[in-house]
Amino acid sequence: MTVSQVLTRKRWMLKAHDQHIVVVHGPRERFVHPLMKALIWALYLPDYPNSTIEVRIGDRYKPDVVAFALDPLNHATDAPVFWGEAGQVGRQKFESLVRRYPDTHFVIGKWETRLRPYEEIVRKVLSGVRRNAPFDLINFPESSVNTIDDDGVIHITHDDVEWLRL
């Protein structure tokens, strides 16, 4: 596994699609957790160009990656249009979120993990819930770390990951 020099620091300045973001690797945080946040951000940035990482949105829950639609005056709308989670996510959290935000595109990213068991859980959570937006499950293989070069540019596409849209 080749790790970008950028990822050896505590603060990572990362770039994708002509944008940049700073990701902080916390002292008690597994390395892959902030890495997955950055990869989810970069992967969905073309669809959600105003997405960001780790911001409180006035909800009980805090998303790892989030984007809001903008009104004509460039003010964010009330409900997020995109919500990404990296790693462990409690079932109760997603049961609450998918009901309250039927128009929000949700993504759960996992590191080097089989998606089929999670697919069954998510399908049960979504059963009977009116949804107008997709729900994606992504498995980031260990080689995903190689999608970040030494300049901090993330080069990742859906072809680089295992991806299920529900």
Please describe what this structure looks like.
The protein starts with 10 loop residues before the first strand and ends with a strand. Helix 2 (91-100) packs across helix 3. It is globular and about 45 Å long. The chain is 20% helix and 29% strand. The chain has helices at 32-44, 91-100, 116-126; strands spanning 11-16, 19-24, 52-53, 65-70, 76-86, 105-111, 135-140, 162-165. It has a single domain (5-165), classed as Restriction endonuclease-like alpha-beta roll fold, CATH 3.10.640. The chain is built from three helices and eight strands. It is of the alpha/beta class and 166 residues long. The chain has a six-stranded mixed sheet.
Number of domains: 1
Number of helical elements:
3
Total number of beta strands = 8
Rg estimate, integer Å: 16 Å
Tertiary shape: globular
Residue share in helices? 10-25%
State the CATH topology.
Answer: Restriction endonuclease-like alpha-beta roll fold
Strand order, main sheet: write it out. 3-4-5-6-7-8
Most strands sheet = 6 strands, mixed
Q: What is the quaternary state of this protein?
A: single chain
CATH domain class name: Alpha Beta
The amount of beta strand, in percent, is: 25-35%
Short description:
The protein has 166 residues and is α/β, with parallel strands linked by helices. It contains three helices and eight strands.
Summary keywords:
166 residues; alpha/beta; Restriction endonuclease-like alpha-beta roll fold; 6-stranded mixed sheet; two-stranded antiparallel sheet; 3 helices; globular
Q: How are the elements arranged and paired?
A:
Layout: E1 11-16, E2 19-24, H1 32-44, E3 52-53, E4 65-70, E5 76-86, H2 91-100, E6 105-111, H3 116-126, E7 135-140, E8 162-165
Parallel strand pairs: 5-6, 6-7
Antiparallel strand pairs: 1-2, 3-4, 4-5, 7-8
